[in-house]
Structure formats: C-alpha cells, structure tokens
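Think of the structure tokens as a kind of shorthand, similar to the way a musician reads notation: each symbol stands for something richer, in this case the local conformation of the backbone. In the example below we present two proteins back to back. Begin with the first one, reading the sequence and then the tokens, and try to describe in your own words what changes along the chain.
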Amino acid sequence: MKISEVMQEIKSVNPALAAKLESQGYCLVEGDNKALICINRFLKVLVKCGNGRFTCPVQDLDHFLKVIGQSKEEYVRSVEIAISD
C-alpha cells in the first residue's frame, strides 16, 4: 500500500493520529500501535532491529516487541508504517 493510501485511511478515522504520524516521519512511538489497531489491525509495520528487519501486522507488534525484549543480544531501533512504491 502506498503511504498516501495508508494515511488517507488513518486520517478518515483519526485526523489527529494521522497528523502526529506525519510529524514523526511515519515512525510509531509507544501507544500509537493501539490506536492503529482500532483503524486497521492488519496494517503492516516495519520493525528495524539491531540485526535485521521484518514486517508484521500492527496487531502482532506487541508480541514481537516482547520476544525481542527478552533477548540479550537483540534490540528494536524503530517501528514504522510499512509502505510500497
């Protein structure tokens, strides 16, 4: 999905969240994922870790963050809305 399509979907439900995400460069901070789940729980997010990256639905983000947090060798650098061309 293109970022303009994703942001339009978010803006139609929660304009304040859309503006916040745009100001954050489409990066999520704590709590943003809960608001996004209410809009589209299958929205893909890009998780950047110390040793790689992966995408997952926003509904599964908390699970993966917990798993990564239990590792002594891995960490999360950022979480962003996943986009395509």
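Once you have a description of the first chain, move to the second and do the same.
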Amino acid sequence: MTRSPDPDVRRRKLTLGVVCAALIIVLGAIWMMIRPARNSPDAPGGTFWACQSCGNHFNVSTRELHKFQAQHYGERYPCPKCKSTNVIRDEEGQRKAQGEDTTTAVESSPRR
C-alpha cells in the first residue's frame, strides 16, 4: 500500500514553485528596464535629427524616443545641446548611416 504525500509537504512545494515563478518574472522585468537600448530593424542606428535653432545634429535611439514620448505625450523631442524643440528629421544623416548619399532633410515631428 502506498502512502499519499503529506498535505503540508505538497503545500510547501507548491508555495516554493509559485515563489520561484514570481522571482523569475520580477527579474525578467528588471532586466527589460536596465538592458542596453536596442533600435528597431528599420532604424538600426536610431533616428537622426537636426536642430534648426543651433544647427546641432544628433541621434536618438528608438527606445529613448519611445521613453520620451511616454513621459511627454504630444511634445517634441528637445535638442540635447540647446533644449529647443525646433528639430527636424535629418534624412541625410539617416541615409549616411545606412550607406546611402543624398542631401535632403525633411521636416517632420519626432511625434508619431
């Protein structure tokens, strides 16, 4: 005759399993927040911008742009040099980073 497992042992094993699963989920969430920024396949070098106020050209990772948009909904991304929001997409910088060579900058907003 086999003896059924003790209910306390089963409860402790189940609790241990749930705690382990919760720990894995929490550690995964922490890793997703602190991992290095990744860019989208469409813009592996990030997105390129040009400030019309100071002439600064800068690059913003896709992740950083999404983070800014989540915190500042509807606002334009500011220039890191002069903090002006008078920025346009720098298509020329984008094409140079992708190996193409054209000289056009198209005005658009860093908002989507």
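Compare your description with these statements about the second chain. Residues 47-97 form one domain.
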